[in-house]
Write a sequence for this structure.
């Protein structure tokens, strides 16, 4: 569900399953140099470039510990590493669904919150202190729309309006595949469930609401880049996709804007790979990068919400308005309930895994 | 081998060994195949039937056998592959015939036309089709501008888009085997048929077509096999009704980390393709299907 910037995700689509199946036999990563080095696996592209600039390089200067970046931090790769006993990554930058899958497969170390700076941690909403991941960069699923189809604030502003194909004409696109959970919260809200009562999700009610959405959806997209491309070209009018991605496109001149109201917030997190050795350097790194000022610098380069509310002291009002975690935008949206999605159901799988599977089933069987 | 035999006295006993057992020469290739194909296949079988608790288990097989959602996905996959193969035959056969019967210049041009798109990535080509086929794409804009249609045609995110994208990628695999057989065909044979009073159609139906069937069978087999495993093109150009089994295998392996089930789905696909090939082999002959006949 994470927002994967850069081309790596696309390239991975091609190599796909064959690579992951072969990976236990092929050791791709370089061996660790020494304990004055940590390896951070992130998503590449502009995201890693910005992180290098405002996080990795200053950290190296401050501590003398080298930060190497690698990635993409796919769960299947971590699995291959941990199971072969050849762990070359220390820290992952990834989303909750991936973390839940990895926790279930016992691929992560829990985060020792005693080793995290208390003052800095206090400025990060407690919903982001997951036992296996510390939220640092916030993405959100929002109503992203084409401004030529919906000029001057005529866009749908609630999920019920997105579900309303009569009053709001236009082609929709929604995410499917690529590890994306179905957007059951929005389906429930569109059906009249109030935002504060979304969880625990009424699964059956949400799916019957999805049935009503289905005929309105022109494309079930697999990558967020695809969604933004479809919106930019005017192929699609309304999209449920990552808001910050829409803002990147808007900055580049695409006829796209983001409606924050009703959005669903979720964190990309720092997580620690099981068997990562250099514990002290890892926590030094974490304490360095969760600092509000460091996060603010990152937010100036990529429009994802900083998790620390301290960051907004270092950002202008105009900059804050475009970020999903500014106090004003935060109030219009809700947090993904990590616990609900991670809850293990009777069949031993998490709600997330079960609903992803049901999503595929629903798509194939049309029910 | 004749050159080797002639120089046998000079090269000594080592060469004589090669001459006596030419099979030795393929050992390298066999080893390569064993490592690159057989190894992963065995590992896949291991994943599919292993169970952390009981050692071995048929649980994954049971899941594949009893879940009708996956059966439907297999059906969709085979439907898409069959339609692609049929379209490739209908376009590829006349194309290869033209290539084989035209002069060298036109033949080169035709070969280039089918090969050049082959050199660019499948992903790039799928994205290009998205630009061409969309609601506001080049084709629809042009058709509307010329007044041929009023509202854009639905060419994308449905099976039309999938087939256009797939046939574009797969066509060379159909054209080349047919052409290879036709180019070797003795041009005097259809002419002999004509001289004995056959009409052009009769000469084609009774001489050229039967002789080119091995190429057609080889092309169709290749195209069908490739089409079964297609993943990127249906994902980008298709709609919800074009969800292939490859997508679901990817979901199990990459997103749900359910490698045993992913492995079992892969094996099931392999077995089904194998079964289809076996049925084809019974009717058409394995050598013909593999394109080995007519040499």
């Amino acid at each position: 569900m994470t927002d994967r910037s850069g081309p790596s995700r696309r390239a991975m689509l091609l190599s796909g399953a064959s690579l992951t199946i072969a990976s236990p036999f092929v050791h791709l990563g370089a061996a660790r140099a020494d304990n004055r080095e940590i390896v951070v696996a992130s998503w590449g592209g502009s995201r890693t470039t910005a992180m290098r600039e405002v996080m990795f390089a200053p950290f190296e200067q401050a501590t003398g510990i080298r930060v190497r970046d690698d990635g993409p931090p796919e769960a299947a790769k971590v699995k291959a590493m941990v199971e072969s006993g050849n762990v070359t990554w220390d820290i992952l930058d990834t989303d909750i669904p991936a973390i839940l899958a990895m926790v279930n497969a016992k691929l992560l170390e829990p985060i020792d919150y005693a080793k995290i700076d208390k003052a800095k941690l206090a400025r990060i909403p407690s919903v982001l202190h997951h036992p296996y991941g510390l939220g640092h960069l916030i993405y959100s699923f929002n109503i992203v729309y084409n401004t030529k189809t919906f000029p001057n604030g005529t866009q749908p502003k609630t999920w019920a309006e997105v579900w309303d194909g009569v009053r709001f004409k236009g082609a929709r696109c929604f995410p499917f595949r690529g590890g994306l959970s179905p957007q059951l919260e929005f389906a429930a809200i569109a059906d009249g469930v109030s935002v504060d009562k979304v969880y625990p999700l009424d699964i059956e009610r949400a799916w019957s609401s999805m049935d009503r959405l289905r005929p309105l959806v022109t494309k079930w997209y697999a990558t967020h880049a695809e969604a933004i491309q479809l919106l930019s070209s005017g192929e699609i009018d309304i999209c449920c996709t990552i808001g910050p991605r829409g803002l990147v496109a808007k900055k580049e001149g695409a006829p796209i804007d983001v409606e924050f109201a009703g959005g669903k917030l979720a964190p990309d997190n720092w997580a620690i790979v099981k068997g990562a050795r250099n514990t002290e350097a890892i926590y030094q790194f974490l304490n360095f990068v969760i600092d509000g000022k460091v996060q603010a610098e990152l937010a100036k380069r990529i429009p994802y919400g900083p998790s620390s509310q301290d960051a907004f002291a270092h950002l202008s009002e105009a900059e804050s308005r475009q970020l999903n975690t500014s106090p004003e935008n935060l109030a219009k949206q809700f947090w993904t309930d990590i616990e609900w999605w991670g809850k293990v159901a009777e069949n031993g799988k998490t709600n997330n895994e079960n609903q992803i599977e049901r999503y595929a089933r629903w798509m194939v069987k049309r029910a | 081998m004749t050159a080797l035999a002639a120089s046998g006295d000079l090269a000594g006993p080592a060469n004589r060994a090669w001459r006596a057992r030419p099979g030795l020469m393929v050992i390298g290739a066999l080893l390569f195949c064993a490592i690159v194909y057989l190894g992963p296949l065995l590992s896949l079988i291991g994943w599919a039937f292993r169970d952390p608790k009981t050692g071995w288990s048929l649980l994954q097989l049971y899941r594949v056998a009893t879940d009708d959602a996956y059966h439907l996905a297999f059906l969709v996959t085979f439907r898409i592959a069959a339609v692609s193969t049929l379209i490739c035959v209908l376009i590829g056969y006349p194309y290869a015939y033209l290539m084989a019967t035209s002069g060298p210049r036109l033949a080169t041009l035709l070969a280039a036309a089918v090969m050049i798109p082959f050199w660019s990535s499948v992903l790039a080509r799928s994205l290009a089709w998205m630009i061409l086929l969309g609601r506001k794409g080049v084709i629809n804009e042009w058709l509307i501008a010329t007044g041929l249609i009023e509202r854009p045609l639905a060419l994308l995110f449905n099976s039309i888009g999938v087939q256009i994208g797939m046939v574009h990628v797969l066509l060379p695999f159909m054209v080349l085997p047919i052409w290879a057989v036709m180019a070797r065909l003795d041009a005097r044979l259809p002419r002999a048929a004509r001289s004995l009073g056959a009409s052009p159609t009769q000469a084609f139906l009774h001489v050229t077509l039967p002789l080119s069937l091995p190429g057609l069978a080889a092309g169709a087999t290749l195209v069908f096999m490739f089409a079964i495993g297609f993943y990127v093109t249906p994902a980008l150009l298709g709609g919800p009704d074009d969800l292939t089994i490859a997508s679901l295998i990817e979901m199990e392996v990459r997103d749900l980390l359910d490698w045993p089930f992913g492995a079992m789905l892969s094996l099931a696909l392999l077995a089904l393709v194998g079964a289809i090939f076996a049925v084809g082999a019974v009717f058409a002959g394995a050598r013909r299907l593999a394109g080995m006949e007519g040499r």
